Amino acid sequence: MIRPCEQTDFDVIVEIINDAAQAYKGVIPADRWHEPYMSRQELANEIEAGIDFWGLEKEGRLTGVMGIQDRGEVTLIRHAYVRTLAQKMGAGTRLLYHLEGLTANTILIGTWADAVWAVAFYEKNGYTCVSQEEKNRLLRTYWSIPERQVETSVVLAKRR
């Protein structure tokens, strides 16, 4: 079952993100990696900035989460993570399709350029990497991230 996450899910969201983000360790630039990957305060800030998290629940337990953020003319998919033990079973695809159904806007997704598995996942689901110039413009316009993250990321888009 896919459902909106509630305040009571906060600790589980942090747990899922930090579990799944272990895949980035040693892959993304070392100066961008930190433990935990996302702190409780960072998650609270993201929710306060307007990211609505949705979760896939299986047998009463959240196995994956994905955020959606309305930015006016575009919609961002943010923080898409599935528990390590539940990966490669369709949870990410189900969440992505559900969130796509919530907007008629062009959808943008930013991820680490070196996370080739993530880029391949989005491409398999109909997203296309934008040019370097467009990526820089989009990340600086719609995201609040450090410049070093802009340098080391890609943006994928699905026009609607």
Main attributes?
single chain, 160 residues, alpha+beta, Aminopeptidase, seven-stranded mixed beta sheet, 6 helices, globular
How many domains in all?
1
**Percent range for β-strand residues:** 25-35%
Placed side by side, the strands forming the largest sheet appear as: 1-2-3-4-5-7-6
Write the CATH homologous superfamily: Gcn5-related N-acetyltransferase (GNAT)
Please summarize the sheet with the most strands: 7 strands, mixed
The name CATH uses for the topology is Aminopeptidase
* Total helical elements: 6
Report the radius of gyration as a whole number of Å. Answer: 15 Å
Shape: globular
SS-derived structural category: alpha+beta
- CATH A-level architecture: 3-Layer(aba) Sandwich
**Approximately how much helix is present in the residues?**
25-40%
Distance between the termini: 26 Å
What number is the mean pLDDT? 97
Query: What low-confidence regions span 5 or more consecutive residues with pLDDT below 50?
Result: none
The beta-strand count equals: 7
Give the C-level CATH assignment.
Alpha Beta
Order of helices and strands: EHHEEEHEHEHHE
